[in-house]
Amino acid sequence: MLGIILRRLVNLVIILFVVGTLLFFIIRAIPGDPAVALLGSTAKPEELEALRRDLGLSGPLYLQYLGWFGRVLHGDFGMSIIYDKPVLEVIGDHIAPTLTIAIISTTLSFLIAVLITVWNASNPRNLIARALNQLSQIGLALPDFWLAVLLVYLIALNLRWLPTSGYTDIWVDPVASIRTLILPIAVLVIGQAASYVIVLREGMLGQMSQLYLRTARVKGLSEFGVAMKHALPNALLPILTIVGLNFAGLVGGIVILENIFVIPGLGSMMLGAINSRDFLLLQGGALFVAFLFVVVNLITDLTYALVDPKVRVS
Amino acid sequence: MTALLVPSTTVPRWRTFVVRNPAVIVPAALLLVIVLVSLIGPFFLQSPTATDPINRLQPPGGAHLLGTDTYGRDVLSRLVTGGRASLGMALLITVCSGAVGTFLGLVSGFFTTAGNVIMRITDAWMAFPAIVLAMVFSVTLGPGVLTEVLAIGIIFIPFSARVLRSRTMEITSRTFVEAARVSGMGPWKILVVHVLPNVAPLIIVQTIVYIAATMLIDGVLSVLGLGIAAPAPSWGNMISEGRTYMSTAPYLMLFPGLVLAFTVFLVNMLGTNLRPVFDPQARQLKALQRLRTHGNPFRR
Amino acid sequence: MNRISRRWRHLSVTSMAIVAAGALLLSGCTPSGPSDTPTDEGTPVQGGNLTIQISGDPGGLDQNASYSIEAVNISELIFEKLFALDAENTPHPMLVDSYDLSDDRTTYTFHLRDGVTFSDGKPLTSADVVESLNYWLRVNAQGRIVSGDVESIEATDDLTVVLQLNKPRYPLIVELTGVGTGILEADIAKGLDATGFTQEQAIGTGPYKLDSWEPNEQLTVVRNDKYSSLKDEESGYAGAKHAYLDSITFKIVADPDAVKNGLLTGQWLYASPTPDAYPELKANPDLVVNTLSGGNLNLLVLNHAYEGSIFHNADARDALSLLLDKPGIMAATGGSPDLTVESAALTPEASKIMYSTAGDEEYAKHDPDKAKELFAKAGYSDDKPIQILTTNAFPAFQAWATLVQDQLSSIGVKSEIQAYDFVTMLGQWQGYPDKWDIVPIFFNGDFPSPGQMNVLASAASPASETHGEIADDRSQDLIDALADYNDVDNADDAHKIMDTITAIVARDKPAIILGMTRPYAAYSPTLKGYDNYWYVFWNSWIAE
Fold first, then answer.
1. In A, which residues are within 8 Å of C15 by CB distance?
2. A61-73 and A279-307 helices, crossing angle to 10°
3. Which residue in B123, B126, B247 is closest to A153 by CB distance?
4. Which residues 6+ apart lie within 8 Å of C89 measured at CB?
């Protein structure tokens, strides 16, 4: 087990190195001079050059790269132009909304998917259960930004049940925070839960027909009991990785929902960074998202290994 | 399991196939209708880009069956023509990324050393924040077909490669491959003659799953202003343009959204129901399930 | 502290002077006939916080470094200028008590008001004024235009400043109400360059001061208790400033839907939605919807100065103008006739001196057949489609591009739309004259003098990295007219020259003017005392 962890950790470092390097060069390929973006075209050439020097954007690209990487190794991601703060601090400021949404929506989707699947597996002929399965196919097909606009219009604007947009920190004002979070989370849950249901159901159906469950049934366990106690734990394994990856994906990728609901999260931070050519912030943010992705992936894989002895051996 | 390993003979002839698989045929037929309408329809409708500012934002009914948009363009015509762009892009992206992914998957599953190197690369590849990549491409190249193919295609390649790799490894360990090897067949020939036909069904199913995902991502890119450039219609950019008018002209957003959702639904159904046909025991299920969900990083 | 840490602004723009997210650049002067001023507002209520939606981060509060509408509007609450325009569009002394002008019209002597202090308690002195104006002349695009005429600025005593010109400049006092002329403390203004002052240095003599700022989220100003108000009656941007509100919070919301929805549900009391939303909001009985002072000059900039562009040829420029259905194009993006002025006038109507309809005859000509002929005559060929450069950051620009493309195709002229993000588009526009023929855009129409108008500046395409300097191809009569304007000494003569200038622009067509769009705001009826002058919230209050 320890060997696996060590090997994976080395792997992780390599991946981050590769990603960081690629990120640097890809981002620097973006046209548009940050100095011009900042000063406007009326600026004199010497003003532009001075600014580029200050931003660490002058000199040959490979030297800039080496400098940036060297500083990153020391935990210095540089200064954000937009925010006039260290990049790490800016990421810290924007991580809370995104993380809150990602955690809540992932957990909820997972629980809902488990409930629906278990119910469905223990009552395979129940009409509502079957309908829910079909619904999940529809949930998977709905464009989420489209759904978001629709929900805002119906629930926030017409019925006035919830605010149309905004974000309040959950520790500052839990009630206001939850009210603003309901709609974005609902949109995410519909899509996510749908995909989990589909995956889980296949696994559950496979498990429910396994021979070993006959014993359980013979022992008098109800279908529900069988599903919960025996089929579910086995069917949960394959979905763990998906949940993990989805979660990591959410952290870097809810740009549009953040925009529609005016949530100051990581996605909108990076969009802003691109639009104003805040390269250091963009590099830092993207590297952070990659880091999170790799770590979550590692955790799910380790959990997998812990639960499933077969993986440990191989 | 063995059924899949012998090429061609287990795939039912089309007649029995149709009778036995309504769940495949119905979505396939409906999709065919959608494709045909979007291909042929524009010839019978007015131009989707002809503007008419005087008659802007006309509600559905009358001269314009589905109304007009903010420039006075015919929504029906845009909807039908937009299908070409949306479906065409999805197909183009899926085929491009599928080809590269398949190649990488086959090679990495068959050759051990190359396989390990490729897998390390795909690890890093997958960790790369897709949305950042898409935005960078768009800003660098400007919105357009090439940008979309690159931005979306690049996301799918590593996932596709991974799935193909595990399948390839599995098949490579079978006796008939061993036999071919012993008989002196070259590795590339084995790959093409023995391995490829056996992974083909997986490739097809995977392609279908990606088509659905791609169509949704195309919509997301449009909303971010990175998708197919106006004035050419796509369902994605119609939704994106229409959403400002949700309260005054809801049809502008509703119609393309519904059509997009319905099409994605059909494609998904086709993919789901086609799987057991190719592989009654759905052995590669897990891999695909992984794909279906996290293969689409823009989904949320 | 290195220089990076001072870079707290977002995305300032360019001399081509537009925008930041969602609005026009405002030069903060000419009040231009906002909707009828409300009467019977009740008694002012002291206190409270007003929440206002803005479309983008101001990017800074220094008008010489951040050109966004948000930067200008918010900084006007914090900084004051020597003069401000009143409701009659006349400069009204603000920090100046009085001024004298010598007989040869070249020496201005400003007597500053006594007892004015900055929000940090330091008294306002002539040194502050000298350094602030020098900063403006040194760094600001418009200031630099003025600086050629300025011989010297000197403080003769603590409260007297003498500004010496080398030749008369008629619009000078109005120009002193323009962007970037706010008065800073001398020791701050002294060393500033184009990157502007820092957040900590945002200290002015205005009725409000900066309280907090989270970039891209919100910014709050609070009442400046040290503010010394004029006793004159409030009028336009000038006069007494009561600062009834304790604080004003600017919430940064870019998504047009979110802007509108938040207004309808009371998340902010005041918003500037897109023109599209105007009819719907105007019909809403729970909102006050009024046009504001100022106006956007919507135009298609043509690459006239670059020899490689078809529009270097005057026939092609005429052809495009004859082809386009300008009112139709305006209607598709203007939202409502209330917001649209169909005219080739370069400034809003309220700017009495500069508003001119002398170009309207040319503007109204519409003859697609003739256009087709002229395009052929100008040497148009299908091998070289017309390039329309635009940005997806501004839906209106893209809309115009779409409509222009469609109208061009109706006479068989091919065109291609290149849409980039904003920064890339600016780079293409300014650096690569071979990459574009038409740029649809809006400029602020609210300039203090014709010499500062973008359309009239030398060559629409500035120096480029790839093609070197591009020659000034303005006609001699335009250059002469601009010089004449500075030389006049009364409003009537100035107005006549504006007629000439407007007619020349309509004739030469460095850009095709589509029309003017009036900005508007939508707000809650509980906001009282607001006269629809942009940022003039200092005499507003929230009814109980």
1. 40-42
2. 50
3. B247
4. C30, C31, C32, C236, C350, C351, C352, C353
The H-or-E segment that residue C520 falls in is strand C520-523
Q: Of B55, B68, B71, B148, which to mutate for an interface test with C (greatest number of C Cβ within 10 Å)?
A: B71
- The count of domains in chain A is 1
Residues 6+ apart with CB under 8 A from A156: A162, A163, A164, A165, A183, C261, C265
**Token code pair at residue C513:** 């003017």
Distance between CA atoms of residues A91 and A86, nearest Å: 9
Q: How far is residue B68's CA from residue C334's CA, in Å, rounded to a whole number?
A: 17
Closest to C105 in 3D by CA, of C176, C52, C168, C51: C168
Q: What is the pLDDT of residues B73-125, one digit of tens each?
A: 888 999 999 888 889 888 999 999 989 999 998 898 888 888 888 888 888 88
The domain segmentation of chain C, as residue ranges, is 39-260+520-542, 296-517
Q: What is the ipTM of this complex?
A: 0.83
Smallest Cα–Cα separation from A283: which of A70, A55, A22?
A22
How large is the average pLDDT for residues C468-480? Answer: 77
Q: Is the CB of residue C74 less than 8 Å from the CB of residue C148? A: no
Whether domain C296-517 has CATH 3.40.50.1970: no
| Cβ neighbours, 10 Å, residue C527 | 20
Render C334-384 in DSSP notation, one character per residue. Answer: H-SGGGEE-S--SS-TT-TTT---TTHHHHH---HHHHHHHHHHTT--TTS
Alpha carbons A46 and B199: distance in angstroms, whole number: 61
| CATH superfamily of the B76-274 domain | MetI-like (1.10.3720.10)
Angle at B144 between CA C419 and CA A253, to 5 degrees: 95
Q: Contact, C511 vs C301, CB < 8 A?
A: yes
- Distance separating alpha carbons of residues A220 and C201, to the nearest angstrom: 78
Q: E-assigned strands of chain A?
A: none
Chain A nearest CA to B128, separation (Å): 6
**What type of residue is B2?**
T
DSSP bridge partners of C56: none
CATH value at residue A141: 1.10.3720.10
* Mutation target vs A (from C51, C137, C195; most A CBs, 10 A cutoff): C195
Nearest-CA neighbor of C171 among C16, C45, C354, C19?
Answer: C354
- Report the residue from B127, B224, B289 with minimal CB separation from A256: B224
* A71, A78 contact by CB (below 8 A): yes
CB pairs under 8 A between A and B: 169
- Is residue A67 in a domain? no
**pLDDT reported for residue B283:** 43
**Do residue B142 and residue C328 have CB atoms under 8 angstroms apart?**
no
Tokens of C375: 């395009």
Please write the tens of the pLDDT for every residue from A96-142.
Answer: 999 999 999 999 999 998 888 888 777 767 778 777 777 888 888 88
Is the Cβ pair B50, C328 closer than 8 Å? Answer: no
C256: exposed, middle or buried (Cβ count in 10 Å: 0-12, 13-18, 19+): middle
Query: For C39-260+520-542, which CATH superfamily applies?
Result: Periplasmic binding protein-like II (3.40.190.10)
Query: Rounded to two decimals, what is the model's pTM?
Result: 0.82
Lowest mean pLDDT among B139-148, B258-267, C437-446, C459-468: C459-468
Positive/negative CA dihedral, B156, B161, B162, B167? positive
Dist. CA B160–CA B107, nearest whole Å: 13
Extract the tokens encoding C119: 């929000």
- Best of C280, C410, C421, C432 to disrupt the B interface (most B CBs within 10 Å) is C421
All structural domains of chain B with their residue ranges: 76-274
Give how far C32 is from chain B: nearest CA, Å: 28
Instruction: Let me know: does C388 contact C416? Beta carbons within 8 Å.
Output: yes
